Amino acid sequence: MSWRDKLRPASFRGVPFQVFDDKTPVGRRVVVHDYPRRDSSYPEDNGKQTREYRMTAFVIGRDCFDQRDRLLDALEQDGAGELIHPWLGTLRVQAGECDMTHTKAEGGMVRFTLVFHDAPDLKYPGGVANTGKQALGSADGLLDTALNRYRDAVELVNLAQVTVDGLMQQGGSIFDVLYRYASPFTVLFGSVRSFVETLVEMPGSIADRFASAFDTGWGVGVAPERYSEAISGALGKVGAISTLEEIAPPRGREAGKLFDATIDLVQDVLLVEVVRDVGELPAYSPAVLPAGAPALDVQITNPMAAIDVPVADDLRELAEVVSESMWQQGMTAPREHFQALTNSRLKVAQHLAKVAREGVGLVTIRPPQSVPALVLAHRRYGDATRADEIVMRNRVAHPGFVPAVRLELLSQ
Fold this sequence. Notes:
There is one protein chain. This protein has 14 helices and twelve strands. The protein has helices spanning 3-6, 64-76, 131-154, 164-181, 183-186, 192-201, 203-216, 227-245, 253-279, 296-301, 312-330, 335-357, 373-381, 387-394, and strands at 11-12, 15-16, 18-23, 28-33, 42-48, 52-60, 81-85, 89-95, 99-101, 109-118, 362-365, 407-410. The strands form three sheets. Strands 1, 2, 3, 6, 7, 8, 9 and 10 form an eight-stranded antiparallel sheet that branches. Strands 4-5 form a two-stranded antiparallel ribbon. The longest helix has 27 residues, at 253-279. The radius of gyration is 35 Å and the shape is elongated. The relative contact order is 0.09.
């Protein structure tokens, strides 16, 4: 097939015309900066050249005036249209300032100088759901239903049959979990004995104190500065929920009912804390990475600043663990609390998925021989300061001797 066979009949908005020739600027838009007393200049790249299609066209025949009028209507219509370019194919363009020429010497023909500009589909800012805010909002609803669940449960307890000494051991175990994973809340009670006495004598005030701590933000700990710290803290709180289930119940029916209600409340409080921790995770914006790593001696004098990035695999693991924990909590929850758990579970999963999309993945390697973490980090990333990252993720016993075993490293 010759080049003539590949030419396409020209038209604009379906109106045909003939083409003598065309001209289109291509390349890059460059601004050249000249400086006095210098033989060289600086060309500043300003992006791709704007495509402007110029054609010398005509219509011919006994009905040339009818053809001319149809083409004029097409050129003067508002908005972009479809141009069939003989050499470039189908284009979406906007008609520009064109010229029309009539001459007696060329009777039966009308000449045009046509100008078209590229008109791609415009992109406008679109609304994006703030999944972090949605997760934080679901935590408030989860806390409300958890407190209502606890208050309803303790109303059915005959407190006259419950003693402080009978709950002291279990209360100490619950207080210990709070101290390790939600330490700000332990200040609400001061000591184990004070906590158990309040639980036995005024169980309703337990819920009131938790509610007040969340409302004022006084009981909420400081948000972690790094993704790894936030993920580790959230995983620890989910693990504490399982630890609470292992506490042996006290003797006596009424004491057991009060104990179960308290365990459910503390587990829900920990889940609310997890949801809040997840909601506080910022959506990651990928940083512009340097083209190459500086030399090792340069890194010694000017260490590279560490970039905090979320690890997609860690976020997916957290999403699975939180989802499973909430599902287990919902198995025995009343309908209202089950709905709140389900809502929080979905919001947490959505936000973690959003953060993970911009995160980095893990890759598995096996060094051919034992090497120092410093050397492995420099070989892998060109950044020797990331040796601690390798040591902590793979729980290496000594940073000077990374064993030749399966290791998990960030992909970049």
